[in-house]
Amino acid sequence: MIRTIIGLVWLLLLVAGVAGCGRFAALQQKDPPQGDLYTAHNGSISVSANAVTQSKPRRVSWITLARKYPGAFATRGPTSSKRVALTFDDVPDLEYTPQVLDILAREKVKATFFVVGERAAKHPEMVRRIITEGHSVGNHSYDHTSYALLSMRKFEDQIERTGNILHSQIGYTPRFLRPPYGEITPAQLMWTQSRGYFVANWNVDTEDWKGLSAGRILRNVRRTLGPGSIILQHAGGGVGEDLSGTVKALPSLIRILKQKGYELVTIPEMFSESQELESMRLY
């Protein structure tokens, strides 16, 4: 009898231990790695090959970066006036970029396009069209690799290569940057600041890269819209990416913003009165 009881006790302990191990493993799989070694986008997580062995600083929030580097990083413009900035990432392409430009021309609105250098090299005519029609451009890396996964040298190369491409196409090097996925480390941010760049992220995410409908995109904008808002959209699609919702929503979005009394400006215009940026040549 006693042996039977002892056997049952050991069996229960064994089952509990196995269940505990299974739960621990599940949590390890579910929770993303911490620090600067990952970036989450499109529902996936990318981790560097040496993430297990290499130690890096913990990821710093955008709020902290904006407070610590007010002359180098922002997610929104001044809130003292009702201005908003429409921004479009991952340009140029030959499908969505022309459609967005057509709408902006028809609505007489200027926007800011964050350019991927690799794409600009393939479609210089689209970059020139963006500039010719009065819009602003910014640097969005060379090949859309997450900066948080790169060494400093490779990070610098991403910015410099795209800057050189744009300079050859439009005659100057844009000083506004937007990191892929918005991810940048403090060390990288200090480098950009020392060279006269300014990182302009966003505070209104349309989430249009998910292939959302026009109605859903407009609801996402209303959620966090306010004076000084920087609105993130995309006008360059990846493989199989559907941005038709972006194109369909844009005329309604512009109309809604104007009805609410907002002035639509470019990123350089948004920060033109910022004291921290007075010494920068802004385009």
From TrEMBL:
Protein name, as recorded: Chitooligosaccharide deacetylase
PANTHER family documented for this protein: CHITIN DEACETYLASE 1-RELATED (PTHR10587:SF133), GLYCOSYL TRANSFERASE-RELATED (PTHR10587)
GO molecular function annotations of the record: hydrolase activity, acting on carbon-nitrogen (but not peptide) bonds; metal ion binding
Lineage: superkingdom: Bacteria
PROSITE patterns named in the record: NODB, PROKAR_LIPOPROTEIN
Keyword annotations of the record: Hydrolase, Metal-binding
Coiled-coil intervals: none
InterPro entries: Glyco_hydro/deAcase_b/a-brl, NODB_dom, Polysacc_deacetylase_ArnD
Record domain NodB homology: where: 82-265
Gene3D superfamilies named among the record's database cross-references: Glycoside hydrolase/deacetylase (3.20.20.370)
GO biological process: carbohydrate metabolic process
GO cellular component: membrane
Pfam families noted in UniProt: Polysacc_deac_1
Keyword Ubl conjugation appears in the UniProt entry: no
